[in-house]
Amino acid sequence: MPVVRRALVALVLFAAALVMPAGAAQAAGPSPACGTTNVARGGRAIASSQDPLYPPSNAIDGNPHTRWVSGPGESQWITIDLRAAYNVCRVVLNWDFQYAKAFQLQMSNNGTSWYTIFATTTGAGGIQSIDAAGTGRYIRMLGTARGTGWGLSLWEFEVYSRLAA
Fold it and tell me: Domain spans of the chain?
């Protein structure tokens, strides 16, 4: 029986690897060099657009069963006011099936002048754990190309910091 059990476990793990989006196998949460507190949680979130049933605050509420959903179209964004300046070292984006194929993570001290700390044109959705370095009070995900015909949707937008700036 142990041989059958091991074979079954191997089959399940193999099948999961086949259906899991690229990048989804990365562990969610901060790298060892980062802090362990999600500094976005409890912040204030605004977005370029939203579905009335799925506001941007859902992406930072710590509940993996609520989400932010944008309207359709390119150049959708969600901005988090972290309430203080942080030295960001890791961002975790937990995408619904409506993900951004191309997006930037940007930071700002004032919420109007932005600089890019990460950019990709090959986003695959799922859980994306991103090492990124930047300092500021505001962080945003700027989606520039959708991965589906729908808008964008995030279950969670987590931000981890080394130390307060």
Answer: 24-164
For every one of its 165 residues, what pLDDT tens digit does the chain have, with 9 covering 90 and above? Answer: 454 444 433 433 333 333 333 333 344 444 457 888 999 998 999 999 988 899 999 999 999 999 999 998 889 999 999 999 999 999 999 999 999 999 999 999 999 999 999 999 999 999 999 999 999 999 999 999 999 999 999 999 999 998 654
Q: How is residue 22 written in tokens?
A: 């690229």
Which CATH code of 3.40.50.300, 1.20.1250.20, 3.10.290.10, 2.60.120.260 fits the domain covering 24-164? Answer: 2.60.120.260
| Contacts with 79 (C-beta within 8 Å, 6 or more apart), sequence order | 45, 46, 47, 56, 111, 138, 139, 140
